[in-house]
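To whoever picks this up:

The nightly regression suite flagged Nucleoside diphosphate kinase as changed. Nothing in the input moved, so I suspect the structure step. Input below, exactly as stored in the fixture:
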Amino acid sequence: LVASLEQVDETYIMVKPDGVQRGLVGEIISRFEKKGFKLTGLKLFQCPQDLAEEHYKDLKGKSFFPKLIEYIVSGPVVCMAWEGVGVVAAARKLIGATNPLQAEPGTIRGDLAVQTGRNVVHGSDSPENGKREIGRLALLASFTLCDGYFSS
Ligand code: RTP
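Regenerated output under the current build:
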C-alpha cells in the first residue's frame, strides 16, 4: 500500500559525446543499474543541432551556449530513460555538481571528469522536465520506451 502511494517518475539521462568517446557508457549505465533504477529506453544517436538547441533553450542567453551546442553535436550521444521512485533527484545526486571539480568523489562527474564543458552526462532537473525531454526525443528521434518488463 505504501509503495502504491509513492510517485514513480522518469528521468532523461544523456551520456554526452565526451562520455561516449572516452568509453564511459558502460560505467555510467552500471551506476544507475546498481542503484536499482529501471532502464526503459536506450538509443545511441547523433544529436541534430535543432534538438540540442531545444534541449538547452533555457540557457540560450548564456555566453557558453554556442560552445555547449557545438559540444553536444560533436559526436554521438547515448540517450536513456530511467524509471523509479525519486529517480530524478537521485540521478542528479549520482551525477554530481555541474562543475566536476566541485562534484563529490563517488559521483559520476566527481570521479570521471574535470571540466564543466566536458562533464560527461546530463540528467533532468525535475520530473516535469524528465517527461518533457523524453517526449521530445520520442517525437524528434523515434525514441521508444519499453516499460513493464519487470516490476520493481
Ligand atoms: P545538464 O543540464 O547538462 O545536466 O547540466 P546541469 O543541469 O548540471 O547544468 P546547467 O546549468 O543546466 O548547464 C548545462 C550544461 O552546460 C554546460 N555549461 N558550461 N562554461 C560554463 O560555464 C558552463 N556552464 C554550464 C555544462 O555542460 C552543463 O552541464
